[in-house]
TrEMBL record:
PANTHER family: GLUCONATE OPERON TRANSCRIPTIONAL REPRESSOR, TRANSCRIPTIONAL REGULATOR, GNTR FAMILY. It holds the Pfam family GntR. Residues 28-95 form the HTH gntR-type domain. It comes from Mycobacteroides abscessus subsp. bolletii 1513. This is Bacterial regulatory s, gntR family protein. Keywords: DNA-binding, Transcription, Transcription regulation. Residues 1-20 are annotated as: Disordered. CDD domains: WHTH_GntR (cd07377). Gene3D superfamilies: GntR ligand-binding domain-like, Winged helix-like DNA-binding domain superfamily/Winged helix DNA-binding domain. GO terms for molecular function: DNA binding; DNA-binding transcription factor activity.
Length: 239
């Protein structure tokens, strides 16, 4: 593995500057928050395969102690996102195009099952609430608003499905989605809200085939966008 020392750019660009203004890390979720920031940096290529993550530098950038950073790295090691290198620390593990496709394929499978369950249970009032959240997404004026509306839309849909264990597994899988990246992409919102419109109509009509199709297309689009982004940034330039 080729050693790379991170420069701190990913913290300044993606972790520290934009997020410190909107949400402080809270003590009870400290290691989970740090893991989430590192996971997002890995999934967007801000931390590249082979790059070493220095605990003291990361802690300083996030304004936390080394302990939650160490705990976060142990979590990411368990997920296969980083490798522990004896006497060297933690290095970012390899991430391939197929890995990205597999992550989104898993999310899609779980989301389809939840959407099918929701189609059998949804009420007109719940469909109206989904439409309101989709309007909030359409009219969002900041990445934070985009993330909130998208999360609430799918949270409500999964609540309607009443499959809590399945929803929990989906929640774990979507941790690997770099939400900030999509929220900052102006070209993502229009097709996403249009897909949501079609999904809501299919849910109202009980059209299971269309529910499946409109659910799957969101994850196909997400995988494509992330892979294209990583291609543009040279993630796999040495493949």
């Amino acid at each position: 593995m080729q050693e790379r020392h991170h420069t701190g750019k990913w913290q300044a660009d993606r972790m520290n500057a934009p997020r410190a203004r909107t949400r402080e890390i809270r003590r009870p979720q400290l290691s989970e928050e740090v893991a989430g920031r590192l996971r997002a940096a890995i999934m967007t290529g801000d931390l590249r395969p082979g790059e070493y993550i220095r605990m003291d530098e990361t802690a300083a950038q996030l304004g936390v102690s080394v302990t939650p950073v160490r705990e976060a790295l142990l979590t990411l090691r368990g997920e296969g996102m980083v490798d522990a290198v004896p006497h060297r620390g933690y290095a970012v593990a390899a991430l391939s195009r197929k890995d990205v496709e597999d992550i989104f394929a898993l999310q899609s499978h779980l989301a389809v099952e939840l959407a099918k369950a929701a189609a059998a249970r949804i009420t007109p009032e719940q469909a109206d609430a989904l439409a309101e959240l989709n309007d909030a997404l359409r009219n969002a004026t900041s990445p934070d608003q985009v993330i909130w509306a998208e999360f609430e839309f799918h949270r409500l849909l999964n609540h309607v499905a009443d499959r809590p264990k399945l929803a929990w597994f989906l929640l774990q899988a979507v941790r690997y989605t770099p939400h900030q990246l999509f929220a900052e992409d102006a070209s993502w919102i229009v097709p996403t809200t249009e897909t949501h419109d079609k999904l809501i109509a299919a849910l109202r009509a009980g059209d299971i085939a269309e529910v499946i199709a409109q659910t799957e297309v969101q994850f196909i689009d997400g995988a494509r966008r992330l892979i294209e982004y990583l291609d543009r940034t040279g993630m796999w330039s040495q493949d």
